[in-house]
Amino acid sequence: MNSTAQQGGTKRIVVFSGAGVSAESGIRTFRDSGGLWEEYRIEEVATPEAWIKDPKRVLHFYDLRREQVMNALPNTAHLAIADLEKHFHVDVVTQNIDDLHERAGSSNVLHLHGEIRKARSTKDPDLVIPIVGARLAWGAECALGSQLRPHIVWFGEEVPLLPVAANIVARADVLIVVGTSLQVYPAAGLVDHAQPGSRIYVVDPEAVASPRPNGVHIQAPASIGVPIVVKELLRSAGLSG
Ligand code: NAD
């Protein structure tokens, strides 16, 4: 960590991101029209029941999304978040299943809802492996001989990393909430773990409710709003004019 930033008071920054941070990379948000979600009903592709009923359909749905992610590139917002590491300790807690924060250069990324480019054993949830290519085939097995499933937290499933994420948010001096409608629980409740003395910025083009009355809402797309927040943080840490 840069010592000048420590003198400025801000030590730990936590970025809590949602689908909106990847929208400008061409990956549609949950609620956008015309997206994959519109062609599929959530219950048919993103629940444990769907997996039992029609696993091939579920695999196909995630194959399409994986392909989309592999063809996408990190945008200005992902890159600005990664750049913050030059000056501060930064943790990214994301609801996204894409790997654009990592590809932009962020080192500490926690994926609350799983990772599209990984698969896990249906016998042992801790057995997680990377998927080579875009396709996870029906019949692809883990080392224990059971079918591999997408490493995704489906609707109706526990969010195993939630307590870890809550701890990270609780240690933030600054929390940047970007591109999330804060409507998907329990993840959305994470913002309540921020300490009363921390600063909160919300970046979203829509008039989303700030998690705190004194939170700063920058009503702009992530590619514009995140650099504004970064500039402000650097300025208040005495790192730029
Ligand atoms: P959401 O779809 O509920 O909300 C998206 C938010 O992003 C909205 O508030 C919208 O106004 C905002 N937004 C749209 N364009 C933006 C932009 N250019 N810059 C900044 N903000 C923008 O998404 P959510 O809150 O993340 O919850 C949806 C769930 O769907 C999550 O659990 C996530 O796992 C999943 N999801 C993930 C991806 C991904 O991995 N990229 C994509 C779609 C959905």
Structure description:
- Helix 6 packs parallel to helix 9.
- The protein has helices spanning 3-7, 36-39, 42-45, 48-53, 55-71, 76-83, 100-104, 162-170, 222-236; strands at residues 12-17, 89-94, 109-111, 114-121, 128-130, 148-152, 174-178, 199-203, 216-218.
- Residues 1-7 have low confidence and may be disordered.
- The protein has 9 helices and 9 strands.
- It has 241 residues and is an alpha/beta fold.
- Helix 7 links the parallel strand 2 and strand 3 (109-111).
- The site of nicotinamide-adenine-dinucleotide has 27 residues, from loops.
Number of helices: 9
Elements, N to C (H/E): HEHHHHHEHEEEEHEEEH
Strands in their spatial order, largest beta sheet: 3-2-1-7-8-9
Amount of beta strand: 15-25%
Structural class: alpha/beta
Q: Which consecutive residue ranges, at least 5 long each, have pLDDT under 50?
A: 1-7
| Rg calculated over all Cα atoms | 18 Å
N-C termini distance? 20 Å
Q: Can you give the mean pLDDT?
A: 91
The tally of strands reads: 9
Q: In percent, how helical is the residue content?
A: 25-40%
Bound molecules: nicotinamide-adenine-dinucleotide
Query: Biggest sheet, open or closed, and with what strands and sense?
Result: 6 strands, parallel
Global shape: elongated
